[in-house]
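input
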Amino acid sequence: MLFNSYAFLIFMIVTFIVYYLPWSFFKKNQIYTLIIASFFFYAYERPLLLLLLVFSVLINSIFSFSVYKVKKQHVKKILLFGVMFNISLLAFFKYSPLIASSLAGDLSLNNGVAHFLMTIPLPIGISFYTFEGVSLLMDLYKGKTILNLQTSSFTEHFKKTAFFISFFPHLIAGPILKAREFYPQMETKYFQDIKWSNAFKKIILGFFLKMVLADNLNEITATMQYPFFLGFSTGNLVLLLLGYSMQIFADFAGYSLIAIGLGALLGYNLPDNFNFPYISSSFSEFWRRWHISLSTWLRDYLYIPLGGSRKGEFRTYINLFIVMFLGGLWHGAAWSYAIWGSMHGLALMIERFILKDKLDHNKRSAFGIAYVFITITILWLMFKLTNFSHVLAYLKAIYTNIHLPFKLGMDQISIIAYGLGVVVYHAFYLLKDTNLYPKVYPKLDVITYGCMLFFIMVNSGSAGAFIYFQF
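output
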């Protein structure tokens, strides 16, 4: 069920009304209301996949409850089995097709086995809810989450775990939640406590980024497919790539803002996922601003356990590369994603080696912003063209097609217009560092959100799935 659909609007209204009904029965069972709603939301288009989600919730509940209840000498084993369950579940459904297609010949797999592995469906949201299962186990093991297991039954713990993992605003594409931050919020919510202004601003901005900017750009960047782009001029190829860079930001940041706004309407604080990433002057700053819930998850549950920067410079470089390589693979079962993660890992390693302690994120330079943005934009090609040979063909066409004339039509004007929306969005953030901001913001606030709401109603693109649904 897409956020940008009439079905979801009806679903949200019904859920909201039932959730805040004033009678004590409904107040006591608010979490059950949201669990049922979340299961319905997940099963809306492919009901069978709900079995996998429930299975994941059940197994994570058993392992996490056992981490607390078993004797101390057995805790690490339980933790290891629980983490391996989540990783194995993700690997089986997400990477079986890649492994089968890569190794079928070497392993002499018969056609039946290879066909089965290569046709396994990818359950939507599995990358997100398996990572949250790992978060639950790790946070409980480290004692960083308030679960009150000393007074809880397994049934009560299962309820909370089901809610934590399946909460529908974040279920499909994040933000990735951490147990230690979410469990303490599980309490009765009251209609009068809703922060309406904050929630609706997030939702309006999210829908504007998605429906007006990303969906309109998507109609144009759809032409970035092999072999169609081979005949485009260098200027048109570069403009399309810039358009896709703006699209992927507007699409994913839009989803995250909608999710955060919906969570706020239901009384839950979801973490910010984007903090104006395209104004970054370094790659390390970019990863503090882009998909923040993933980058902090990788830092807390992978980079730090690997040793972080505590075991010498060489080990730090290796840890950075491993984390980004695996972060790339997390995005999808194609070697282009692994290469994308590796390139980001190399960029972080080189940046750390050259700048070391001289990197100052408080100082911003036009050259640094341009360099990071251009590099990241080129690397986005691996998301749009998952066949790496097509990525190379696109880059080659940029180099060889310089003699072709630049075509300026409605598509090119549209890329500039909608892409400019993302530029203005980031520029407005930079305005906060000036003395002009307090004078301008109060006057523009209502007008800006009113304009965005108007454009949502009159100039939305063709409704489509969010890009990160495929991850």
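quick obs: Residues 195-281+386-471 form one domain.
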